[in-house]
Amino acid sequence: MELTVASYNIRKAVGRDRRRDPARILAVIDEIDADIVALQEADMRFGNRASVLPKDMLKRHGWHAAAVAERPHSLGWHGNALLLREGIEVTGTCRVDLPTIEPRGAVRADLSVGGRRVRMVGMHLCLTGLRRREQLRTVIEHCADEAECPTVLMGDFNEWLPNKGALRAFGGQDWTVLSPGRSFPAHRPLGTLDRIVVSDHWRVSHTDVHGSDLAAVSSDHLPVYAHLRLPKAGAEN
Q1: Longest Cα pair distance anywhere in the chain, in angstroms?
Q2: Helical (H) or strand (E) element with 109
Q3: 201 pairs with which residues across the strands?
Q4: Where do the H-state alpha helices sit in 33-156?
Q5: Which of 118, 62, 70, 72 is nearest to 97 (CA)?
Q6: Which residues pair with 172 in a beta bridge?
Q7: Strands (DSSP E) along 130-222, which ranges?
Q8: What is residue 236's predicted lDDT score, i.e. its pLDDT?
Q9: Distance separating alpha carbons of residues 41 and 34, to the nearest angstrom
Q10: Closest by CA position to 36, among listed 127, 160, 152
Q11: Contact 39/81 with Cβ under 8 angstroms?
C-alpha cells in the first residue's frame, strides 16, 4: 500500500501579498497530489476559531477533514487539522495536549487505507527548544500504547537544527526523521522547520519540499511531502 503524505503551515491562508486566499492554498495542495495533509494554522486564532478553508470548498476539491475540532466552526484544534482524500476511512480521532506555556496541541487520526490500519499525527510545536523536546516526548509516549500501528508524525516542528535539538527525542526510538529540505521562509527558504517522521513500518520512496511559484507566495512556509510504502505484513522489501 502506497501513500503520499504532506505537511503545510498555511498561515491562516494569508500569502506574501497579505491577502487571505483559501482557493490559492487549496490550489497548492492540489499540486502536491497527496492522500493525507497535515495543516497548521488552519483556523482563525480568535473568536469562534473558524476555519480559514471553507468546508464546501474542501469538498469540491475532494477533501474531508478528520473530526478533531473542538468548536463547530473550526477545521482543527489549536490550528492543527488533517485533510484526507475521499475514500480514506477514519476509525478514530483524538486530541493530544502538549506541555507549554502557550496553547499548543497535536491531533491524531486512526485510518483504514486499503484495508490497513495506520495512524497520522499532526502538530505545531513551540518556539522554545526545551518545550519542543517535551512536546515530542509527549507525542511519542502517546503513540507507544499501540507501537505495532504504522504511524506518521508531521507538522511545523519549529526546529532549525537538522537531527539535533528537539529531534533528539527520537534517539533510540523506532522512528526515522525525514528531512525534506528547507521550507521557511517560502520566498527564500533557509530553515528546515517542517518535518515528517515515520515509524519503522514504512519504506520511504521520496521526500521533498514543494517549491512551486504558487507555493512561494501563498504562505510563509512551503509544503513538504513524502511518498511512503507499507509492505505486506511479514515482508521486508
Answers
A1: 51
A2: strand 105-113
A3: none
A4: 55-60, 129-143
A5: 70
A6: none
A7: 151-156, 175-178, 194-199, 203-209
A8: 52
A9: 19
A10: 152
A11: yes
Per-chain mean pLDDT for the chain: 93
125-167 pLDDT tens trace: 998 888 899 999 999 999 988 778 999 999 999 998 877 788 9
Q: What is the pLDDT of residues 169-202, one digit of tens each?
A: 998 668 999 989 999 999 999 999 999 999 999 9
Q: From CA 14, how far away is CA 203, in angstroms rounded? A: 35
Handedness of CA 126, 198, 221, 11 (dihedral sign): negative
What residue type is assigned to position 172 of the chain? G
* Of 201, 200, 197, 199, the residue nearest 226 (C-alpha): 197
> What gap in Å lies between CA 204 and CA 2, rounded to an integer?
10
Length of the chain: 237
pTM: 0.95
Summary count for the chain: helices (H), strands (E): 4, 12
Residue with cell 503524505: 5
